[in-house]
Amino acid sequence: MTEGTSGGSARLWGGRFAERPDQSAESFTASIMFDNRMVREDIRGSVAHVRMLGRQGIIPADDAATIEAGLWKVWDDVEAGTFAFSVADEDIHTAVERRLRELIGAAQGKLHTGRSRNDQVATDTRMWTKFALLRVAQGVHDLAAALADQAAANVDVPMPGYTHTQRAQPVLFAHHMLAYVEMLRRDAERLQQAWSRADVMPLGSGAMAGVTYPIDRASVAADLGFGAISRNSMDAIADRDFVLDALYALSMIQLHVSRLCEELIWWSSGEFRFVQISDAFSTGSSIMPQKKNPDVAEIARGKTGRVVGNLMGTFMMVKGLPLTFNSDMQEDKESLYEAVDTVEAVLPVMTGMLASMKVNRERLAEAATGDFSLATDAADLLARNGVAFREAHEVVGRLVRSCIEQNKTFEDLTDEEWAALHPVFAVQKPPLTALESINARDIPGGTATPRVSSAIEEAREGLTAMQQWIDREMAVRTRTFSRNSPGASPR
Ligand code: ARG
Questions:
Q1: Residue-wise pLDDT tens for the chain (491 aa)?
Q2: 422 noted as active-site residue
Q3: Are residue 382 and residue 281 in the same domain, yes or no?
Q4: Which residue among 118, 168, 198, 483 sits deepest, i.e. has the most Cβ atoms within 10 Å of its Cβ?
């Protein structure tokens, strides 16, 4: 598409207006500079509408055919990059109609029968959102798959698990990776839910009260790949919940990515040395020759603010709006587009960084038992042998204190020292390796190796199901937007 200069006004307000728009008001009220991104949705929506007008005999069938053919010519302009628009077009709906008039003349005037830009913009935005959510879902899937692969490749590697950023108890590195896979699986569910809410067609609501023609809304919905039609014309026009649902789902993805990035940034530092981010996903310093910076992770973390900001901005935009349409609502689009663009940029680079990341197994294993992270296991052993857990906690707590004072670890203690601590320890010593401690947590959701191995399998099955949903709905989208779309055939 090309952006022209502001020429004579093409606005279609008609006879009510005696004056031409003020130039500042014209560019201020225009949305064409951003909503041109929905040009395909707009054309396709018009194609479905005009097909239905012809089928229902609301306009003559040959006019409908002329208009549809003209709309596909506009589509060709778009594909060829020669669709020109300017602020005089106000928005994408007007721009498409203006171009159509240039191409087919008077017949164009019948397209907007039984339709308003209000139901049109809601319909376009919903179609655009559905497609965007599918693309984002693919990105979420791929990142989750990369995390599951890292889990599988390092399934036997212990590491410290943390609370309060203090070493708490050993866990498998794979268990830690799978925690993020769970977050991303919930993110995918949220995307699906947001997609379902967007999958309702407002067209037929007119300006807001419905229309006076015998339109067939169900056939238009089927033609456009919508699963349902809206139930209330006023709600359908005023509702931007689906935009907020999408923004919330996107914000949650960023929140999870941001937490992961935070950990990777720490883990790749000289203090931790848990992982090595590959050179390909790092940057250098202009002054310090030794530096390798985790810039990708930092920028991905930093992008979170703008996505959440777009959610907050849209909340505030909708708040206090009376029913039904208000032009404030055209402010939803830049927020939505920016959030989608941001997450679509973040996910693949995160996936690449995760897939190429090296895990320092020895360093992780060595850190796993530091800071007395096996103390709970010692207390558990006492409790299993009849000591009240609170008392066991006290005994082991005193042991930790005396070890710290003597600069010793549990491994340094002799059999006699253990026995002196508690009679139970004379018979059996507590787990002294990370893997013993880890494998003792053999319950659903626990970090024991067999549990984690089957969790990897289960996660991969979940990802396969996610992929099937994406493929199915992508196919519907592709079919709907192909030139030879089957028309009003049901899904
Ligand atoms: N440009 C508007 C939007 O982006 C669509 C037109 C809405 N209708 C109206 N009466 N201004 O939401």
A1: 666 544 445 566 677 888 888 889 999 999 999 999 999 999 999 999 999 999 999 999 999 999 999 999 999 999 999 999 999 999 999 999 999 999 999 999 999 999 999 999 999 999 999 999 999 999 999 999 999 999 999 999 999 999 999 999 999 999 999 999 999 999 999 999 999 999 999 999 999 999 999 999 999 999 999 999 999 999 999 999 999 999 999 999 999 999 999 999 999 999 999 999 999 998 888 888 888 899 999 999 999 999 999 999 999 999 999 999 999 999 999 999 999 999 999 999 999 999 999 999 999 999 999 999 999 999 999 999 999 999 999 999 999 999 999 999 999 999 999 999 999 999 999 999 999 999 999 999 999 999 999 999 999 999 999 999 999 999 999 999 998 665 544 43
A2: no
A3: no
A4: 198
Q: How many domains does the chain have?
A: 3
295 with 284: CB under 8 angstroms? Answer: no
Active site residue 356: no
Output the CA–CA distances (angstroms, integers) from residue 386 to 225, 382, 391, 423, 426, in the order listed: 64, 7, 10, 12, 15
Q: Find out whether the beta carbon of 86 lies less than 6 Å from any atom of ligand 1.
A: no
Q: Give the residue ranges of DSSP H helices in 56-116.
A: 61-80, 92-104
Distance 121 CA to ligand 1 centre (A): 7
Please tell me if the CB atom of residue 94 comes closer than 6 angstroms to any atom of ligand 1: no
Read off the CATH number of the domain in which 79 is found: 1.10.275.10
Range of the domain at 415: 375-430
* Domain membership flag for residue 441: no
The DSSP bridge partners found for residue 293 are: 283
Could you tell me if the CB of 381 is within 6 A of ligand 1?
no
